[in-house]
Amino acid sequence: MLYKRAAFLTILTCFIFTACHERKNENKTVAYNVDLEKIEQRDTLRVGVMFGPVSYFLYRDDYMGYDYEMAENLADSLGVNIKFYEAKSELELEHKLQDRTIDLIASNIYETNELKKLFWFVFSQNDSYQVLIQRMNADRINDVTELKGKKIYVKPNTILESRLISLNKELGESFEIAEAPDSLSSEDLIEMVAADKIDYTTAYYKTASLYKYYYKRLDVRMPIGFDQRNGWLIRHESKKLKKAIEQWQKSKYTKDLEEDLDYKYRTRNLYFSQKKIRIPKGAISPYDYIFKKYASEIGWDWRLLAAVAYQESHFDSAQISWAGAAGIMQLMPRTASNFGLTRKTIFNPEKNIEAGVQYIKSLNMSFQKVTNKEERIKFILAAYNSGPAHIIDAMSLTQKYGRNTQIWYNNVEYFLLKKSEPQFYNDPVVKYGSFRGKETVSYVINTLDTYESYLRKK
Description:
The chain folds into four domains: about 1-30; about 35-125 and about 230-270, D-Maltodextrin-Binding Protein, domain 2 (3-Layer(aba) Sandwich), CATH 3.40.190; about 130-225, Periplasmic binding protein-like II (D-Maltodextrin-Binding Protein, domain 2), CATH 3.40.190; about 290-455, Lysozyme, CATH 1.10.530.10. By secondary structure, it is of the alpha/beta class. Helix 15 packs across helix 16 (about 375-385) and helix 16 packs across helix 20. The radius of gyration is 28 Å and the shape is globular. The strands form four sheets. A five-stranded mixed beta sheet has the order 4-1-5-12-6, with helices on both faces. It has helices at about 1-30, 35-40, 65-80, 90-100, 115-120, 160-170, 185-195, 205-215, 240-250, 250-265, 270-275, 290-295, 300-315, 335-340, 350-365, 375-385, 390-400, 410-420, 420-425, 440-455, and strands at about 45-50, 55-60, 60-65, 80-85, 105-110, 120-130, 130-135, 150-155, 175-180, 200-205, 220, 230-235.
């Protein structure tokens, strides 16, 4: 009897071991063969991203960027949702792709032989090459042989560092390579050169030229490498995903979107396009006559309209924000279109101001129930900054909690700030979700303070 029981337990153990082994192999097969079918099955494209002033960043509580928006469009074309995974370095992104945490790296990765062995490059971008970042002065380096004795800062475990190591070997170990701490990005190092905190770093010319536009002191002319291909990365196993991306990239809609986003994030990027505006002596702005012409249409003092423009753009008619708001009055594309502006006319100072006035006129109608004109102006300013929806939500909360919906300070303003807390943005009277209102609250105060300062001018 004991023999039979032992034999049964042996057979049962073998069966369980075999079943577990097969299940393990089955899971391994699923884990190691992630292609388009699996993405469609889970209904989510998992995308790795890394912070950068063009690629991916947070602006006014919203994520945006060239690669971010292109990846969203790719997911839409595949008919699936998208989930983003942030990484602090290219190496971390590569590891996430290798271990199948993500399906795609949507970041500007430069091609190397090692990466080509591991991944496919897709959605290719324009080639670029590495340059030395230095300040423009009489001692600037004009040739790599002049690097002798210099210290160049670079992020460790990057292609930039690899190139410096190779170059140093070619030059007989003549310069020092200093590894930057993890807390600093390659972009931080460029800004540190501009601020005289370090003397040298390196970057790809595409990135360096953007910073050069903003930091005029930078010299980015000396190449230290050759043209390299760059783009997004996927695993070699993802053959059907690769084919889908190639088809998506060829479509006219994708090409048009590429052009629009390139214009939005590279050509007219707010971070790199800010300029000092020359104001005539005795004037508030270069456009006083335009503000005077149109302010009467909304019954405002023209200096209040000028104060709005100053807060929005510092009177820079060519400015475009991260979010795509453009021109002196920083009109969003949809708003601009509603008031007759095109991609070209949106940067015309008079047309932009005229459209801004029409938008303010519409906001005035939206808050007509605020009977006191001075109070209504505060509501209009807040809505100009955040959009009217969040202000309407704040008014609903103000009414529910028994405060005065006709007063901005310490009433509607108070509940706009509360919209960042779950207790309030989950309230049934709130229709437009959570919102961090600090910027809008500051915007109202700062605009009115600017207006007061203009009033004091003759």
